TrEMBL record:
<keyword id="KW-0804">Transcription</keyword>
<dbReference type="InterPro" id="IPR008920">
    <property type="entry name" value="TF_FadR/GntR_C"/>
</dbReference>
<dbReference type="Pfam" id="PF00392">
    <property type="entry name" value="GntR"/>
</dbReference>
<dbReference type="GO" id="GO:0003700">
    <property type="term" value="F:DNA-binding transcription factor activity"/>
</dbReference>
<protein>
    <submittedName>
        <fullName>HTH-type transcriptional repressor CsiR</fullName>
    </submittedName>
</protein>
<feature type="domain" description="HTH gntR-type">
    <location>
        <begin position="2"/>
        <end position="69"/>
    </location>
</feature>
<dbReference type="InterPro" id="IPR011711">
    <property type="entry name" value="GntR_C"/>
</dbReference>
<dbReference type="Pfam" id="PF07729">
    <property type="entry name" value="FCD"/>
</dbReference>
<dbReference type="InterPro" id="IPR036388">
    <property type="entry name" value="WH-like_DNA-bd_sf"/>
</dbReference>
<keyword id="KW-0805">Transcription regulation</keyword>
<keyword id="KW-0238">DNA-binding</keyword>
<dbReference type="GO" id="GO:0003677">
    <property type="term" value="F:DNA binding"/>
</dbReference>
<dbReference type="InterPro" id="IPR036390">
    <property type="entry name" value="WH_DNA-bd_sf"/>
</dbReference>
<dbReference type="InterPro" id="IPR000524">
    <property type="entry name" value="Tscrpt_reg_HTH_GntR"/>
</dbReference>
């Protein structure tokens, strides 16, 4: 059964990441408790957990405010994800992938194909996002590395680190289809490199795959120029090209 703290945590985390609160906005326990119809103690505990996850900052007075992230913060987070996943695929190729994890990854890639509607030229966004996350979770397991699995799980709690963070759910059909098809091609190439024990290529492909998220971020930012940027509400500062 979900506790009141867990419920508050899930609701507030989702609202923050979806841009319901702006960077720098103060979150008051009393107001949130009333809005969520949850007592103050579990709300306070949820806010403390979100501060540990890096989504909130504690103020000098003991309250909380939504943390704003620079473009460089987001870029470095995506680079870190690519580095860790690249290492996972390199180790999987070098050591030989754990058969069960490799089979699961191949099954997921096959299921991802079913998310594409070849007749209607559409994509099952929710299904793709769920399976995409599942695919990325297999990478450290293929490498049989508990250390990498733990560090990747920890890193995924960082804002915008998720493999599905910048999937183009609300963009033009052409852009959505292109992005998803490119991602799926990269998934297959990564698995092929692992099967062939080509560690250098596996790592390079995983890093390139992570960079796709940065390209999506750039597209989302540019497309939202002068309009609603709720998807990027936590990102502040001037937009600039990655180094």
């Amino acid at each position: 059964m979900t506790t009141q703290t867990e419920r508050a945590l899930l609701i507030l985390r989702e609202r923050i990441l979806k841009g319901a609160y702006r960077g720098g906005e103060k979150l008051l326990t009393v107001n949130l408790a009333e809005a969520l119809e949850i007592s103050r103690t579990p709300v306070r505990a949820a806010l403390s957990q979100l501060a540990e996850e890096g989504l909130l900052d504690r103020t000098a007075g003991g309250s909380f405010e939504v943390r704003a992230f620079s473009y460089a913060d987001v870029r470095d987070t995506l680079i870190l994800r690519g580095t860790l996943e690249g290492l996972a695929t390199r180790l999987a190729a070098t050591r030989g992938a754990v058969p069960e994890a490799l089979e699961e990854a191949e099954r997921i890639v096959a299921e991802l194909d079913d998310c594409f509607d070849t007749v209607g030229d559409g994509v099952d966004n929710e299904g793709y996002s769920r399976l995409n996350l599942a695919f990325h979770a297999t990478l450290p397991r293929m490498a049989d590395s508990a250390v990498l699995a733990r560090e990747l799980e920890r890193m995924m709690r960082l804002p915008f680190a998720s493999p599905s963070a910048f999937l183009p759910m609300k963009r033009s059909k052409t852009w959505v289809n292109r992005t998803f098809f490119v991602n799926q091609h990269q998934h297959r190439a990564i698995l092929q490199a692992i099967r062939e024990r080509d560690s250098a290529r596996a790592e390079t492909l995983a890093r390139e795959h992570a960079r796709t998220a940065m390209e999506n971020l750039e597209q989302i930012w540019a497309a939202a120029e002068g309009r609603d940027r709720s998807e990027l509400a936590l990102i502040t500062g001037d937009y600039g090209e990655p180094d």
